Amino acid sequence: KITCVGPTYGVMTLQLTPGTYAVTVTAPELNGGQPMEKEITVTKGETTTAYMLNENVVEIPEQLVLDNGNIVFGIEQDIPFLSYYNDNKEQKKIYNYPATLEYAIIQRSQEPIGNTITVNYGSVRMKLRGLNVNAGVPVAVLDGAAAAISLSGANTLAGTSGPGIHVAASTALTLDGTGTLTVSGTNAAGIGGKNDENNGTI
């Protein structure tokens, strides 16, 4: 039995191996304080994160596919969210996403794509796995956010109207990993600020 106690919502992050799990949730202001039975089915990979907000259970994808659409780590009405597109090109939003996870971002196409990654809230850990992006600003870290990027495989980020990785003032970026990164900007740094703009901490 798992008990959530909070004024409006409860959040649980569970690392689960594939299988089916029965979970009972009790929260004072949900379902009249009565227990809610939920069944979680995990089907992908060795471990999958099941994320529970209010009475809803959301399975976090093991990897985010940039070919499908833009990826945003942001904030909306004071609630952090992760926005991405699934394989059906449907936009998905996960509110209060687990900030401790490292989010793997992949690209299936071998050709350059124009979709982008934006981090404008909090501290986010990402692993870029073989991206080839040709866009205005392929990766942007904005509004005081911080991003830790781990590289896997060969990654190319070409900014056509700004930096390849925009690290705005008062933000922070760290890079590591075993992969490679080729990055370029247009009228801007490859990694850093836009033209006539100070960059954050790199």
Flag low-confidence runs.
Answer: 1-10
Strands of the widest sheet, in order across it, are 10-9-8-12-15-18-21
Main pleated-sheet profile: 7 strands, mixed
Helix-residue proportion: under 10%
- Strand tally, please? 21
Assign the structural class, choosing from mainly alpha, mainly beta, alpha/beta, alpha+beta, or little secondary structure: mainly beta
Counted by DSSP, the helix tally is 0
What is the gist of this entry?
This protein has strands at 2-3, 11-16, 19-26, 36-42, 48-53, 56-60, 63-65, 71-76, 79-85, 91-95, 102-106, 117-119, 123-129, 132-135, 139-141, 146-152, 154-159, 165-167, 172-177, 180-184, 191-192. It is mostly beta strands and 202 residues long. It is globular.
How is this structure best described in words?
- The protein is 0% helix and 52% strand.
- It has no helices and 21 strands.
- It has strands at 2-3, 11-16, 19-26, 36-42, 48-53, 56-60, 63-65, 71-76, 79-85, 91-95, 102-106, 117-119, 123-129, 132-135, 139-141, 146-152, 154-159, 165-167, 172-177, 180-184, 191-192.
- It is globular.
- 27% of the residues are buried.
Question: What brief labels describe this structure?
Answer:
seven-stranded mixed sheet; 202 residues; disordered N terminus; mainly beta; five-stranded parallel sheet
How do the helices and strands line up, and which of them pair or pack?
Blueprint (H helix, E strand, L loop, with lengths): L1 E2 L7 E6 L2 E8 L9 E7 L5 E6 L2 E5 L2 E3 L5 E6 L2 E7 L5 E5 L6 E5 L10 E3 L3 E7 L2 E4 L3 E3 L4 E7 L1 E6 L5 E3 L4 E6 L2 E5 L6 E2 L10
Parallel strand pairs: 1-3, 7-11, 8-12, 11-13, 12-15, 13-16, 14-17, 15-18, 16-19, 17-20, 18-21
Antiparallel strand pairs: 2-5, 3-4, 5-6, 8-9, 9-10
